[in-house]
């Protein structure tokens, strides 16, 4: 089994498709998973050379369902983008209608939908 398959069994697909796991920590009482948004531009921005990656926002911690009796915390941060022409810094909002039937909690959905 590939690690990607295991992650898909544990975490929502929207995370695995759009975020990289950058760190993982296990203690007696909890799992902590750190995820950073992948460096992938939206289709309409790929053709615009003035839009470049501009670091990350702060980590937001979201409590997910327990795994093997341990509390699970997802530490997620979205990538920031800079439009060099306008000076605007922004983050992408995620369309989540296809995930309505999943276990995404309202806090996580709000995080993915928020822009800067």
Write the layout of secondary structure elements.
Blueprint: H1 3-10, H2 13-18, E1 19-26, E2 30-37, H3 43-46, E3 51-56, E4 60-67, E5 70-77, E6 79-83, E7 89-90, H4 106-113
Parallel strand pairs: 2-5
Antiparallel strand pairs: 1-2, 3-6, 4-5, 6-7
Q: How would you describe the overall organization of this protein?
A:
The structure is a single chain. With 116 residues, this protein is α+β, with helices and mostly antiparallel strands. The protein has one domain. Helix content is 22%, strand content 39%. The chain has four helices and seven strands; from the N terminus they run H-H-E-E-H-E-E-E-E-E-H. The strands form two sheets. The chain has a four-stranded mixed sheet with strand order 1-2-5-4. The chain has a three-stranded antiparallel sheet with strand order 3-6-7, with no helix packed on it. A hairpin with a 3-residue loop joins strand 1 (19-26) and strand 2. The relative contact order is 0.20.
């Amino acid at each position: 089994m590939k690690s990607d398959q295991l992650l898909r069994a544990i975490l929502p697909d929207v995370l695995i498709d759009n975020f990289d796991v950058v760190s993982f920590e296990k203690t007696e009482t909890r799992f902590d998973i750190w995820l950073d948004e992948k460096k992938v531009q939206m289709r309409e921005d790929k053709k615009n050379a003035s839009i470049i990656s501009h670091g990350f926002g702060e980590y937001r911690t979201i409590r997910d369902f327990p795994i093997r009796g341990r509390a699970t915390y997802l530490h997620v941060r979205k990538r920031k983008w800079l439009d060099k022409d306008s000076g605007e810094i922004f983050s992408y909002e995620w369309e989540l209608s296809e995930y309505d039937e999943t276990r995404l909690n309202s806090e996580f959905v709000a995080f993915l939908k928020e822009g800067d």
